[in-house]
Amino acid sequence: MALIAVATLAALSPSVCYADINQIGLLYRDILAQQGSNSPDVGNLTALSDTALREARPEEIEAVLPIAMKCLDSPNAAVRKAGMQLPFLIVLTRGDNATLLASYVRKIAFFLDDPDVGIKNSAITILSSGNPTPSPQALQYLKAHLGNRQNTSYQFTMIAAALMIPNPQDAKIVSEVLAAWRDRPDHESLTGGMVETLGQAKVTTSDALDLIRSELGSEKDYARVTALEAVRKMPKSVRDGFDAELRKLLADPSVDVRHAAEEVLKQ
């Protein structure tokens, strides 16, 4: 059975410029068939799926997804990873991914507690990357895991961004995210990432702006630059509220900080 999978993968090698969605389905069937043996080789799946997923009709993807989702139930870790790969690729390639994956949100959310960092990262990415917008159900699952102490700093930041980007003016959500950040033992090392996320999401609640303002006065050059970049991404009405701090930073001893302050004031 392993030989069949290898043969299938060889037939779908990157040298083949086009692989249709049916071939992806066959590959997943082979992976499922050998789940009790040695770990399947699925190294070509990403390269092969890109064109197929972009060009496939929604109903074709919907026909293949149940096969891949069965992989998530496997006791074989490599098979589970292979199963997670298809929805991960769908969020990267499809503008209708939220609709395509709507039936599998709960199943994918189960892996938010997975000890395997790669699988957990993929689950967070899938749930947070719904297009045109993440589903409310996906965001609820992410919110429930915001304070999980098992989250790495990267995972926490991904979840925080997923919650705030669709709701930048929701003071309750922003407050909960900031409270979860402050409660983490590594919150000091996460400050830059949090400020960057606030800027990316254009969060303008009072507590968010207070954090950015405090970082403008940090002793660390990179922290001041990060805060300035966050201010730069804000609406003009918000940037104007930082005018005094920005002008003060024009005389900063750091060239990078002075330059960043100048760029914000030019807008």
Explain the overall architecture.
With 267 residues, the chain is mostly helical. The chain has a domain at 1-145. It has 17 helices and no strands. It has helices at residues 2-11, 21-33, 45-55, 58-71, 77-93, 97-100, 105-109, 117-128, 136-144, 153-164, 171-182, 191-201, 206-216, 221-232, 236-239, 243-249, 255-266. The model is unreliable at 1-18 (pLDDT under 50).
Helix content: 55-70%
Spatial extent as radius of gyration: 22 Å
Globular, elongated, flat, extended or rod-shaped: what is the shape?
elongated
User: Based on the structure, what is the oligomeric state of the protein chains?
Assistant: single chain
Order of helices and strands: HHHHHHHHHHHHHHHHH
Number of helices: 17
Strand proportion: under 5%
Class from secondary-structure proportions: mainly alpha
The major pleated sheet works out as:
none
Notable characteristics:
elongated; disordered N terminus; 66% helix; mainly alpha; single chain; 267 residues
Describe the structure concisely for a colleague:
The chain has helices at 2-11, 21-33, 45-55, 58-71, 77-93, 97-100, 105-109, 117-128, 136-144, 153-164, 171-182, 191-201, 206-216, 221-232, 236-239, 243-249, 255-266.
